[in-house]
């Protein structure tokens, strides 16, 4: 087996850093990861929530249900920080 | 591993305080957290329920099914207490 | 940890009393709680079922699947008993 | 804890009697309960199936998947046997 | 407890006989049950698949995922074999 | 209990042969089964994917999530190989 | 039992190589697999995300929730790399 970066190792390395989280529904969040557990429930600080209609909401601290998370992007700063190439 | 704030620690710190809960569907609740369990089922008191059509309903005490919870915001006081920045 | 009211304690205290149950779909029920189990499956008596179209149906005794329950409100007497404030 | 009627006790008491079952989708069934297991999978006899379009279908014996059951009503005889009061 | 016909006993008795299976979506199947397991995954032979648009497809042997099964009807021969009474 | 063909036995017998797989959504696949596990995750080779709009895509090797599989048909060669009889 | 390529063996062989991942919703990703766990949560690097509207987004590293994955294609390079034959 090649040397791997395990999923929970990646999450652990993100503690203290900005991440971008895409939920199963239409919500997305960027924030500083301050903690997580084995179910990948996550605590974020200094959060921006991105609604599907383009609205943004600032939140100081949130807890996200790991079941509802689709994708985590380390260092991400929300939809505006990604590079569209199409 | 950096020092963390674990998800259940955050929930535990919220006992006795106001929180804002966003469910998987369109319902949102603000209330005082009076208890929770390992499935993050939660008991809230002095609750305001926010419907998707803008209506609000006052409820004295409720139990929420943890499976249906998408996000918890400590100190939150419902949609009106957030800062829209878009 | 602050003194808590655990979710199953709240359900247990409701045995013998009227409760209001909101299901994941559009159904709501008020009735007297006569029993429950660890999955929060619940037996209700003297039940009124509230359909989304405003219709009400009287039922003597029902068993509700705990997986499908979104919210329990102690002492509730259905949508008509809540205080709309918006 | 008050004296309770546990959910599985209620189901057990219904063996040999008519029950009414509401599934998560739009189907409803009335029939004689002839058996069940811990997942509340149920065997019914002399069944009437009620479709959402008002059609009824007679079935001699069926097995229902407990995961898909939303509500059980003892002694029920389908939508026509309930009392609408709105 | 009254003498029961347990769900898995019913399925076991159906081995070698025609059954009718209704899936959670819109598909229905009739066929000869040739095997099943504890998750009620089922192997059927000489199968007719009934689509929601009225089309029928003949299949020699299939395996159905038990999670997706809503209802099993012993001796059933598809929608055409039921008695509509409404 | 009659002599049975257990579901996992059927899958095992299909290793090395063409199968047709119908997913819970609208996708269907035909391919040679090269492996599976207890969750019925499956590896297929020389795959044709059938989209709901009639398009076909050739894929050399794929892994399918067993949770998402609705039906497996041994020897099947996709929608075109079935016999419509309605 | 014929010699098999087990699903997790296939995933393990893909570590260090390009893969194409189709999620349960409409998202698809191509990237280099750098790690996975028993739930088939996966870490990808040098990722292109393909939206259903044809847009592409470049992402350096992502973690995908295994529950949400429908299909993995080794060596795949996204929708443009497949051969449409219909």
UniProtKB/TrEMBL annotation, chains A, B, C, D, E, F, G:
Keywords: Acetylation, mRNA processing, mRNA splicing, Nucleus, Ribonucleoprotein, RNA-binding, Spliceosome
Coiled coil spans: none
Gene that this polypeptide is encoded by: LSM5
Record organism: Morchella conica CCBAS932
Matching CDD domains: LSm5
Boundaries of every Sm domain copy: 6-78
Subunit relationships: LSm subunits form a heteromer with a doughnut shape.
Protein name per its UniProtKB record: LSM complex subunit LSM5
Protein purpose: Plays a role in U6 snRNP assembly and function. Binds to the 3' end of U6 snRNA.
Subcellular location: Nucleus
């Amino acid at each position: 087996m090649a040397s791997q970066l395990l999923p929970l190792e990646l999450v652990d390395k993100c503690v203290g850093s900005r991440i971008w989280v895409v939920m199963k529904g239409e919500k997305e969040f960027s924030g500083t990861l301050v903690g997580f557990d084995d179910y990948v429930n996550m605590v974020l600080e200094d959060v921006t929530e991105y609604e599907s209609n383009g609205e943004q909401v600032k939140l100081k601290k949130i807890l996200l249900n790991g079941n509802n998370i689709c994708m985590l992007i380390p260092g991400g700063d929300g939809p505006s920080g990604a590079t569209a190439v199409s």
